[in-house]
Amino acid sequence: MLSKKATIGARVPKMNIEDAPLTSFHQRLTVYSSGGPFLDGYTLSIIGVALLQLGPRLDLGAVWSGLIGASALIGLFIGGFFGYVTDRVGRQLMYTVDLIVFIAGSIAQIFVGNAVELFILRLILGIAVGADYPIATSLLAEFAPRKHRGAMLGMQIVGWYVGATVAYIVGGLLIQFGGSEAWRWMLGSSAIPAIILVFMRKGTPESPRWLMSKGRKKEARKVVKEVFGENASVAEIAEDTQETSFRMVFSDGYLRRVLFVGLFEMFQVAPLFALYTFGPQVFKAYGIAQGGFANLGLIIISVLFLIGCIPALFLVNKMGRRPMIIWTFLAMTIGMLLLGLFPHGPLWIIFVGFFVYAIFSGGPNVLDWIYPNELFPTEIRGTAVGIATSISRIGAFVGTFILPIGLNTIGIGPTMMIGAIVTCAGLLVSIFMAPETTKKTLVEASSVDNG
Fold it and tell me: What is the tens place of the pLDDT at every residue in 410-422?
């Protein structure tokens, strides 16, 4: 046992924050950051239910239905480029500004009078949510210890599916009890969680990694000590940083990574977002009963997507990023093939197809949030995540836009076969391009020498 004198003279070892324990701060930040994905899932899903009413009210055809359903995705594409802004001015400020824009746009939807107005407002909502993706996830990644980083980032997709599930529940209740103008309240309801989120995020500190990258070492030390304790040091998060620039994102070392993340996300979310946006119409095409049963079916499918994320969160470190994305894409392709090959039943095969696709989508869904934030350094993390998100939303827009047109022209079977081909393309991208970042520090994972 050390004497009092020896104890006083002993040097307290510095804490490496990459190996810090999980704290209540990390848990709160994970929840706050998942607010953006929650709003995304809610906004995208509620429009699918609202279209059942607003389509006839605004006299929408297949083209306008597709445009309005996909308008938020166009906004997400634009909003992704705000990652560059957050790399320039910081994570903390943009963390709140985007939500204020989202709230205003949500409330304005209540008063729309035509398809053009609704298209523009949902475009604005998409921009706000798209901006939040690189902001919130960069902030979360830069605070996360490496042992918990995969689960913390992966939890963002849980927020997305919770938002989607809540949207179907709210939409179903309003369809049942809200009258002929219920669609207005459905669309405006997204303001409520956004307002709550603004107050929850108040007081979130700036990223110490971003502060260090801008030479603001004193501020970085203060944040690190407040979050991790007095014996924490900023030394191990110091990087050989460069000035934030688009040129660096598209340099030889990082261009391949941008393409990998953008392409695998694009091929994953194109069928998924289309199914979520036009879930009621897809169920109708399969001959599944409409009304309350159909809405219950959508809730069940949404819950399956959510459940599929749970094992992925636990296995992403044990199984590894690369094996997980390859095997789950393979299973998703099989599920989509079942939906395409058996458009007229039997009913149990259709539900098996949905089940397999939904459950195994958990792997790529979780990695959507992990890979982009691990593969790029601090000075371009937000920029790269935003660009990759924007690339992915091109596919999401195309899938969402053409799905109602496909249902009306070639039918549900061929439409789902196209979805299977797209999902298989994601499998091929993963086989040839997916790197392994498991158990690496953020500096190691983002180094161009890693894969």
Answer: 888 898 899 999 9
